[in-house]
């Protein structure tokens, strides 16, 4: 979209996740209809891909200033106080995303060390979990970009 900041890697990842979910779900429905059975991997992959899609979409929304927020207070405050509120909002978001990144990374590392396997397919569990810290770090980066642009006035309080 012209005029909007881009988060191209996250857009592509989200689109790819959605396409794969649609394809494996369609394949599963057709197989179940024709044979009465279903693919065993579809639920495990679909849940994993939904998490990827959620984090990738949230990252794109951050970059484009499209997250839901109540901006009444921002509009009511003078500029210097609005700036402090924007910094406070960013700090709160950065703390949450930083914790998700840190503890998600620790969890992925532990799953790798313990050689844990997924319950459905027996794949290494860290293959799924490693995306949590990676995408939350992407969200943190997009939050910092968005905050910088809101502070410089490139984004208003309404997207």
Give Rg in angstroms. Answer: 20 Å
Number of helices: 6
**Total count of domains:** 1
Strand content: under 5%
How would the global form be characterised? elongated
Q: Give start-end ranges of low-pLDDT stretches.
A: none
Report the sheet with the most strands, covering strand number, pairing sense and barrel closure. none
- SSE string: HHHHHH
The span between the termini is 14 Å
Could you explain how this protein is built, in words?
It is built from six helices and no strands. The protein has one domain (8-151). It is mainly α and 159 residues long. Part of the tripartite ATP-independent periplasmic (TRAP) transport system. InterPro entries: DctQ, TRAP_DctQ. It holds the Pfam family DctQ. It is a multi-pass membrane protein.
Write a brief caption for the model.
The protein is mainly alpha-helical and 159 residues long.
Layout of secondary structure:
Elements: H1 8-35, H2 42-63, H3 72-76, H4 79-114, H5 126-129, H6 131-151
List keywords for this structure.
159 residues; mainly alpha; transmembrane helix
């Amino acid at each position: 979209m012209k005029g909007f900041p881009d988060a191209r890697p996250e857009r592509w990842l989200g689109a790819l996740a959605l396409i794969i979910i649609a394809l494996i779900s369609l394949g599963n429905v057709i197989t179940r209809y024709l044979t009465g059975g279903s693919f065993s991997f579809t639920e495990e992959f679909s849940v994993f891909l939904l998490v990827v899609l959620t984090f990738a979409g949230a990252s794109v929304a951050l970059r484009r200033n499209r997250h839901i927020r109540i901006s009444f207070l921002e509009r009511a405050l003078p500029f210097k106080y609005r700036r402090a509120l924007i910094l406070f909002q960013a700090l709160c978001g950065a703390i949450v995303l930083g914790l998700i990144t840190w503890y998600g990374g620790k969890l992925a590392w532990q799953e790798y060390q313990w050689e844990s396997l997924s319950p459905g397919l027996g794949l290494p569990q860290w293959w799924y979990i490693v995306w949590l810290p990676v995408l939350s770090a992407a969200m943190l980066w997009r939050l910092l970009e968005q905050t910088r642009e809101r502070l410089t006035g490139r984004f208003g309080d309404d997207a």
